[in-house]
Design goal:
The chain has 122 residues and is an alpha+beta fold. The chain has helices at residues 3-24, 53-62; strands at 34-44, 47-52, 72-81, 84-94, 97-108, 111-121. It has a single domain, classed as Roll (Nuclear Transport Factor 2, Chain: A), CATH 3.10.450.50.
């Protein structure tokens, strides 16, 4: 497996933890996925939403598991350059909501982490 393919799989594995957290309504499953001071910015239900990782965790824990609505997700690594990566995650049917997330990722201390998230709901 090439080094870039290995890096891509590592990135996908980190993003899958995020999906698993929402599928199980258990924010502890995404521990270590986000940089602690990462900021989230997006649009939800026509409103601008800006928050911190703790706000995202609270949202995850406060809702029913995504698996209850047959939530699925498609993870696409858009690009990797050295220690930086861009990822698109399309979430389908999270209790009737559809989201597109864009993650800015950085390799820090040899581990990929999400340093920022922008999203919109459809």
């Amino acid at each position: 497996m090439s080094e870039n393919r290995s890096e891509e799989q590592s990135i996908i594995d980190i993003c899958q933890k995020y999906i698993d957290a929402f599928n199980n309504a258990n924010s502890s499953l995404m521990e270590g996925v986000f940089l602690p001071d990462a900021i989230i910015h997006g649009a939800f239900g026509g409103d601008v939403w800006v928050g911190k990782i703790a706000d995202l965790a609270d949202f995850c824990d406060a809702n029913l598991p995504g698996r209850d609505s047959n939530m699925t997700a498609d993870i696409k690594v858009l690009d990797i350059i050295n220690v930086s990566a861009a990822v698109r995650v399309d979430v389908k049917d999270y209790h009737g909501q559809f989201f597109t997330d864009f993650f800015a990722m950085q390799k820090i201390d040899n581990n990929w982490t999400i340093v920022g998230k922008v999203f919109c709901s459809a």
